[in-house]
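Issue: copy button drops trailing tokens. Both records pasted manually instead:
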Amino acid sequence: MFVRRWWPALGWMALIFIISSQPKLPPIPGLGCLEELSSSDKIKHVAAYAVLGWLVWRALGDRYSRGARSLLVLAISVAYGISDEIHQKFVPNRTCDICDLAADALGACIALIAMWAKPRLQTIFYRKSI
């Protein structure tokens, strides 16, 4: 059960590690317009950690209250972001950047907002007519 719940989150973490290990990242196919933005790196961090936050939320399951689950998602995502930034310090042409960590935390928060909003949105959109 543990492996089934956690493999997507752990796999995503491994992918982040592999990408972070590259001295220079190739452009991502289909995101040419994003590459032109000066803040594209931060947008990529937000997106990657929003996915990570969602996968960790899914992995934790219903064993915790929503509040405890949210804190765990944020703690795990930010801790991994810290380890990722420290790792990048040792990769040629990469830096350890506090702004990247802030973008990582923002991505995890966006995932949490989506998870908190999901039941309310389902109630609105899937309300059965009387």
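Record 2 (pasted manually too):
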Amino acid sequence: MSDREERLMATYDADGEKRLTELLRRNPRYPREVYEFVSEALAHTARLFDREGHVTGAELCEGARAWALEQFGFMARRVLESWNVRSTSDFGRIVFAMIDAELLRKTETDSIEDFSDVYDFREAFDEAFRIDLKPQR
């Protein structure tokens, strides 16, 4: 078993696994992999912002971008799109579905709108890999 598979298996205890299975049954829009990715991205974001607990929606979006680029490189946007994640609002829908399933918690000030238009996916994921083909003088 790979390190990544071991980390993912450790993400949810038996009760959490039941909750995730029920969430997937009720909301098949997103595959299991994206919920696992968001769980990993949350941990990565906490490390990025040197936090023990809560991160904001915008911070999570930035952390998810960094985690996707680290994990998938120039294919990051395409991998996320294959999971039906096409905007930062999708991250919000995923997080709030996880909150509803009691896989995550929120504060009183957290809102799904915190995830709206944090960045444009094409710019955020493709610009880092743009090659300038202008001739050198």
